[in-house]
Design goal:
The complex is a heterodimer of chains A (173) and B (567).
Chain A lengths: L1 E9 L4 H11 L4 E8 L5 E9 L2 H13 L3 E6 L5 E13 L1 H13 L3 E6 L1 E9 L1 H11 L4 E6 L3 E4 L18
Antiparallel strand pairs in A: 1-3, 1-4, 2-3, 5-7, 5-8, 5-9, 6-7
Chain B lengths: L1 E3 H11 L4 E4 L6 H8 L6 E4 L3 H15 L3 E5 L3 H15 L4 E7 L15 H5 L5 E4 L6 H12 L7 E6 H5 L1 E3 L21 H12 L4 E5 L1 H6 L2 H11 L3 E3 L14 E4 L6 H9 L2 E5 L5 H4 L10 E6 L13 E4 L2 H11 L6 H13 L13 H11 L5 E4 L3 H9 L8 E3 L9 H11 L5 E6 H7 L3 H6 L4 E7 L4 H10 L14 H7 L3 E5 L2 H13 L4 E6 L32
Parallel strand pairs in B: 2-3, 2-4, 4-5, 5-7, 6-7, 9-10, 9-12, 10-11, 12-13, 13-14, 15-16, 15-17, 17-18, 18-20, 19-20
Antiparallel strand pairs in B: 1-8
Helix pairs in contact in B: 1-2, 1-6, 3-4, 3-17, 8-13, 10-13, 11-14, 15-16, 15-22
Classes of the chains: A alpha+beta (173), B alpha/beta (567).
């Protein structure tokens, strides 16, 4: 099962190394990791997608939370949230195929960001499914390069990701 | 006022009440040693003979004192030599601050002489670490280092300092209070009352409860609470290896140690219990045996300061993340006076029928018997520091620990060579106590160079080598599981008495029971370090034993393999 974790971390050199080291040493499966500045100065936000069952996802969350520079971490999988990923795809596009490709791009609301002789770069944003599906549709035209950002996620509404620990795996009372 | 980086570091040590540090100089940390020269009235630097010994000694010092242990090493080989000791402190949650020198800033990343990515090497085996790129950061970093090492689930930290940062002069007034947004250990100290009530309810519904006491009792100092709780609830207490000396072993509710070499009756009790109250322990594989068959009939109440330990290895019914002391107090208030006489009697009966700690009457010197004699000769008042392997297990089993926090061992990492340097650290922490290092002939040869240290400072540590001329645990496993194909198990040993004498120390050898008694008495009366070469039976094994991959229910009591075939 896929779990989406949001982690706010101190923007220090080596933080990414600590997180990567944790995933490596405990053999957690990481699907994607996206990181960038958050709205708070000095704090970066990471969205980490792990392929682990519920019990392991709890462990991943707790172990991440133990890292000194991780300010908070939340498994938002069960919370109402939006998630988006961006991809750039360079597609082989001889003139005769170009219109066809552009029509497909239109269906997926992909933007054309570069047109060169024989190739075209499309930018697409959406959830993972949409991008997977787009990639499959354009694959027959010849994907020359594909670059995906990995998922970024945010909890809906005014709520922030609850920074407290996720529930234990047993009945509490 | 103006202070150099090195002075700020040493001021920090003094401010935290550190009086003894263990270290080894080298090029990159020479400026720190130059500053130490001027702090000799406040800081006692013990020059070990290998950096690994510095880390082990700092570990022993920390465990025995309850304070933070400090070790110092230089860049490159200095810091890589610390690794084993720091990894051990990490596994056993021991608060240690490792100060390491680094090449000057302009050489960082150039593969300079004695350059190692020291923070990279230490990253997975420390609770946290820093590479300090400006002396201005040092007041904050040093404060955070002590704070992180000694709060929450304790552990080692490393402060890596480039040579020129030691020398850099900056304006310094005071150490700022630690302010780390992602680290709030105080939050998780008090137990949630709802969970305490839930735990009490589970306890009230249990007929066959067991308390499993671990290392956390020592760290929390929850000795009185554990005793009062066990007595009020009338629940048998069984300890992990690190829980040894957390509960008086002469108490009628004490049933000793659980696990791979736990008492048969303790293992059976855990196997058949309907409730485990696990206090400050982490269900290590050496404790649980085959996990799927571990305590299958038991509900589990697990109290630990580290949230990640709850539900990590076993599924808990009630998990409480808190300090043990207030948690056990709250439990005592919440529970009724209980009576589990039939259950206690049942375990006593198992103990009568299967006395795991009975020692056979023999002519030859059995290692278990030697440990028992150390117990008698010291009136049970010794502080015991053990190495790893057979001698470790015998020391845990056959010395009876009634006094609090008097047993120290490399449990999680299982690092051979730990005991001797750690015993030095323990002695510096508790100078008025008798410190006995119980070590095998193999383990002793891993770090014996610190004989020079105990000679130089007259560190009164009795080194009892349980000498079976073998890597005993290797021999035991090769006997039991490799059909007696002894590969690299036999040791060609030096003359340990002459070795002691070469270092200017007293060395005593015993090869018979009579001689053992004589030399133990003699050693106890010598006011200083003594090396005891106690030659014991070569083929004796540690029992009971849960073979790797077996369950606690499958604990074996003794020997059915004919040793002589392989002799």
């Amino acid at each position: 099962m896929r779990h989406v974790l949001i982690a706010d971390v101190e923007d220090h050199p080596g933080v990414l190394n600590r997180i990567a080291s944790l995933f490596r040493k405990r053999a957690y499966n990481i699907e994607s990791l996206a990181v960038g500045h958050s709205h708070r100065p000095g704090i970066s936000r990471m969205t980490i997608v792990v392929a682990e069952d519920h019990k392991e996802a709890i462990q991943v969350t707790k172990q991440l939370d133990k890292l000194i520079e991780v300010v908070s971490v939340t498994d938002v999988t069960e919370q109402r949230h939006v998630s988006r990923e961006m991809a750039l795809a360079k597609i082989a596009a001889p003139e005769m195929k170009r219109t066809e490709i552009l029509q497909l791009a239109n269906v997926y609301r992909a933007q054309v960001v570069d047109v060169s002789p024989g190739s075209i770069i499309l930018e697409i944003t959406g959830d993972e499914d949409k991008i997977d599906s787009f990639v499959e549709i354009i694959r027959p035209y010849g994907i020359l390069e594909l670059s995906r950002t990995g998922e970024v996620a945010m909890v809906r509404g005014r709520a922030m990701p609850t920074p407290t620990m996720v529930a234990e795996d047993g009945p509490a009372a | 006022m103006k202070r150099t980086g090195a002075e700020i570091i040493l001021d920090s040590l003094v401010a935290h009440g550190v009086h003894t540090v263990f270290g080894y100089p080298g090029g990159a940390c020479l400026p720190l040693y130059d500053a130490l020269y001027h702090y000799q009235d406040r800081l006692n630097h013990i020059l070990v003979r290998h950096e690994q010994g510095a880390a082990f000694a700092a570990d022993g010092y920390a465990r025995a004192s309850g304070d933070v242990g400090v070790c110092i090493a230089t860049s490159g080989p200095g810091v890589t030599n610390l690794v084993t000791g720091i990894a051990g402190a990490h596994m056993d949650s021991v608060p240690v601050v490792a100060l390491t020198g680094q090449v000057p800033r302009n050489l960082l990343g150039t593969d300079g002489f004695q350059e190692t990515d020291a923070t990279g090497v230490m990253l997975p085996i420390t609770k946290h670490n820093w590479l300090v790129m400006n002396a201005e950061e040092l007041p904050r970093v040093m404060e955070e280092a002590f704070y992180i090492a000694n709060t929450g689930r304790k552990g080692p930290v490393q402060v890596d300092v480039p040579k020129d940062v030691f020398l850099e002069e900056v304006e310094f007034d005071d150490f700022p209070p630690p302010n780390i947004p992602g680290y709030n250990p105080d939050e998780g100290m008090q137990p949630d009352p709802t969970l305490v009530r839930a735990a009490a309810e589970v306890i009230h519904g249990s007929e066959k409860p067991i308390i499993l006491a671990g290392h956390g009792i020592h760290y929390s100092g929850a000795y009185d609470e554990l005793l009062a709780f066990a007595e009020k609830a009338n629940i048998p207490v069984i300890t992990t290896l690190h829980g040894v000396s957390s509960f008086p072993e002469s108490h009628e509710l004490s049933f000793g140690m659980v696990g791979m070499h736990g008492n048969l009756y303790a293992n059976w009790a855990v196997d058949r219990a309907d409730l485990l109250i696990s206090l400050g322990m982490r269900f290590d594989d050496r404790v649980t045996g085959r996990l799927e068959d571990f305590a299958t009939e038991a509900r589990i109440i697990h109290v630990d300061i580290d949230p990640a330990e709850i539900g990590k290895n076993v599924t808990t019914d009630v998990g409480i993340v808190a300090d043990l002391k207030p948690t056990i107090r709250a439990l005592i208030d919440e529970i009724d006076q209980l009576d589990h006489t039939p259950w206690v009697k049942q375990i006593c009966q198992w103990r009568e029928e299967h006395p795991s700690l009975a020692i056979r009457e023999t002519e030859i010197v059995l290692p278990q018997w030697v440990i028992r004699q150390i117990y008698h000769i010291t009136n049970g008042e010794a502080v015991v520091v053990t190495d790893v392997g057979q001698a470790q297990m015998w020391a845990a089993q056959h010395f009876w620990y009634d006094r609090r926090n008097t047993f120290f061992s490399s449990g999680g990492l299982g690092a051979m060579g730990y005991a001797f340097p750690a015993a030095i650290g323990v002695k510096y922490a508790r100078p008025n106590e008798q410190v006995w290092c119980i070590i095998g002939d193999g383990g002793f040869q891993m770090t014996l160079q610190d004989l020079a240290v105990v000679k130089e400072h007259n560190v009164d540590v009795k080194i009892a080598i349980i000498n079976n001329n073998h890597l005993g645990m290797i021999r035991q496993w090769q006997t039991l599981f490799y059909e007696g194909r002894f590969m690299s198990a036999k040791l060609e040993n030096p003359d340990f008495v002459k070795l002691a004498e070469a270092y200017g120390l007293a060395g005593l050898r015993a090869t018979s029971k009579k001689e053992v008694l004589k030399v133990l008495k003699e050693a106890a009366q010598i006011p200083g370090p003594v090396v005891l070469d106690l030659v014991v039976d070569e083929v004796e094994k540690v029992y009971p034993m849960v073979p790797a991959g077996s369950s606690l229910a499958e604990t074996i009591e003794g020997d059915e393999v004919e040793e002589a075939r392989y002799a």
